[in-house]
Amino acid sequence: MERSAIPDSTSPEPGAESLESGCAPEAARDTAPAVTLLICTTCRAPGNDAPPDAERDGARLLASACAATVSDGVAVVGVSCLANCKRALSAAMVRRDGWTYVFGDLSPDSAADLLAGAALLAGSQDGLMPWRGRPDELKRGMVARIPPLSLPKETR
Amino acid sequence: MERSAIPDSTSPEPGAESLESGCAPEAARDTAPAVTLLICTTCRAPGNDAPPDAERDGARLLASACAATVSDGVAVVGVSCLANCKRALSAAMVRRDGWTYVFGDLSPDSAADLLAGAALLAGSQDGLMPWRGRPDELKRGMVARIPPLSLPKETR
Fold first, then answer.
1. CA B4/CA B17 separation, integer angstroms
2. Domain range holding A134?
3. Model pLDDT, residue B51
4. Alpha helix stretches (DSSP H) within chain A
């Protein structure tokens, strides 16, 4: 399937060839990261009508994040499609035993804000990304959050 | 914090009091569910200007899902806020060792489609929700998907 396919009611999502690259070899890590930052490498910025085989804005965002200083406890991985195409560029953060976040309306220059948010999430006590101190781009660009299934449940 | 708060750039998300109810007691399950369907109980349908303390459309959707027949391997849980407010009503599905999906633009009548999608996801071989056979509402309403971190990674 062409990687530029955008999921909608007529075209299916790409398949499972998803986690495609990271900033550092897994073998180089002593411990599992507290937060994995997943950056969609297929996204094009709104209005970018470059040919499909041109470098994608999402791939530029990933490269920028990998070139930056990444906090301890944070891993950065490229993903071929997060299916958040309506609000590209897109990224997600998965906190181990905590919450998962999806962000949209990002730009190729969003690496610093994403890494700041990932560090906040990695250091949080309750597994949520604190609102205070969160970069504005990660407030405006909030798409969804998903709780960890380990949270206690009340039964009706 | 008031439960009707909607996350945006000025108002923070609700806290971590998130997984609030399920269709069946955990003790009644023999095994962990393959798929957990999380339904946002705070969402109001667009245009619904009922008072904040009126029953929420999302709570109606949860009640409808719990009243329906739920496939083996699927659990249904209410969540107080998935922060997908721009495309309410909202739900997420978490496949154990598989993909997580977020859906929006749902209605109080979407329970059957959500449960059909959850059953598809629970039965899939690759941890993805098949496109073929997926209810149209879960194609049009696709908000995001997040891969499992267990997928093999290539290192650049």
1. 13
2. 19-146
3. 86
4. 57-67, 111-123, 137-140
Query: CA–CA distance from A42 to each of A2, A6, A79, A81, B101 (Å)?
Result: 11, 9, 8, 6, 18
* Tokens 């009340």 belong to residue: A154
* Residue B26 confidence (pLDDT): 54
In this prediction the ipTM stands at 0.85
Token pair in block for residue B148: 């499992």
Write down the pTM of the prediction.
0.86
A77 touches chain B (CB under 8 A): yes
Quote the CA–CA distance of A31 and B126 in Å, as a whole number. Answer: 27
Q: What is the CA radius of gyration of chain B?
A: 16
Nearest to B84 by CA among B105, B65, B99: B105
Q: Is the pLDDT of residue B1 over 70?
A: no
Percent of chain A topping pLDDT 70: 78
A116: left (phi over 0), alpha (psi -120 to 50) or beta: alpha
Beta-carbon contacts of residue B102 (< 8 Å; ≥ 6 apart): A102, A143, A144, A146, B82, B84, B90, B91, B92, B143, B144, B145
Q: Check which CATH number belongs to the domain holding A78 and give it.
A: 3.40.30.10
Domain count, chain B: 1
Cβ pair B9:A92 closer than 8 A: no
Residues 3-62, chain A: which have Cβ within 8 Å of B? 7-9, 12-13, 15-16, 18-26, 36, 38
Q: Is the dihedral of CA A76, A1, A84, B57 positive or negative?
A: negative
Residue B12 counted as domain residue: no
Q: Is A116 contained in some domain? A: yes
